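In this supplementary section we document a worked example of the pipeline. Step one takes a protein sequence of length 74 as its only input; no multiple sequence alignment statistics are reported here. Step two produces a three-dimensional model, which step three serialises into structure tokens for compact storage. The input and output of this example are shown verbatim.
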Amino acid sequence: MSFEELKAEILKLSPEARATLARELLASLDFMDEDETEKLWLEEAERRDKDLDGGLAKSRPAGDVLKDARALRK
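The serialised model returned by step three reads:
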């Protein structure tokens, strides 16, 4: 399976499942030094910014996101 095929399958998961997968993947990168981690987060931020600019993703007010997160915790 190619990276693009894998990514397409992952994006079909629920937001909760993707968040869990993201946490697991990030935890698997603990061996990296701080500079490498910072570089990867910058790349991710740039990718997300590009997705927003390209209309591939939508932004939401932080207050709405936090409200939804709190509701999920109950």
